[in-house]
Amino acid sequence: MTLHQDIRLVILDMAGTTVADGGLVERAFAAAARHVGADPAAGIDHVRATMGESKISVFRHLFGDETKAQEANGAFEAAYADLVGAGEVAALPGAREAVEELTAQGRTVVLSTGFARPTQDAILAALGWQDLVPLTLCPADAGGRGRPYPDMVLTAFLRTGAADAVGQIAVVGDTSYDMLSGVRAGAGLVAGVLTGAHDTQALRSAGATHVLDSVAELPRLLAKEGT
């Protein structure tokens, strides 16, 4: 089994894992649903269940019609950007420090998201994180498929060259889809955090090898001897 000290590439989710969500995704979804004449309450359970998935995929499932899905996705991104611009986004406690400590340990850290690139960039700018890590990824950077597919994990593996094998990757997130993407990529460590959408049972059921209270615990975990 891979030793924690052998983890060379750490892929961290953003909203709910390193960035406080505070219900912003649900608020932006409600705005998007209203924009296309849909009832926000009708789709909210699916939105909650699929936190971490590419947002355009969520809208395709809910609305079927590609034109309507694209319109809803654009409205979602605009609404979320407005919330970010209004100062309603913040780093989770200890998140930046965790990234910096992981980097100091000699590991490469990548931030990934299910949001589109403009939204991801707006969040990074709002937090002052533009230069925090060497690579950030959204679904479009990995061919268009977001979580639960392994594509963003494998793209990080290929583009950074930080690890010699997928077993040297750690994937960390707050949703079952984060866990599935790590498992499907063959990551050596798949850790769930309890600062976002899903609870311990959901994370474990999706394949989490570890469940942490927050990402702040990750550097200490990885510094330990192997399991």
TrEMBL record:
A family per Pfam: Hydrolase
Which cellular components does GO assign to this protein? cytosol
Q: Which GO terms describe its molecular function?
A: phosphoglycolate phosphatase activity
Q: Which positions make up the signal peptide?
A: none
On whether Hydrolase is a keyword of this UniProt record, the answer is yes
| InterPro entries documented for this protein | HAD-like_hydrolase_sf (IPR050155), HAD-like_sf (IPR036412), HAD_sf (IPR023214), PhnX-like (IPR022468)
Query: Membrane-spanning regions, if any?
Result: none
Keyword terms of this UniProt record: Hydrolase
Q: Please list the GO biological process terms of this entry.
A: DNA repair
Q: Could you tell me which NCBIfam families the record lists for this protein?
A: PhnX-like
**What's this protein's name?**
Phosphonatase-like hydrolase
Organism from which the protein derives? Streptomyces chartreusis
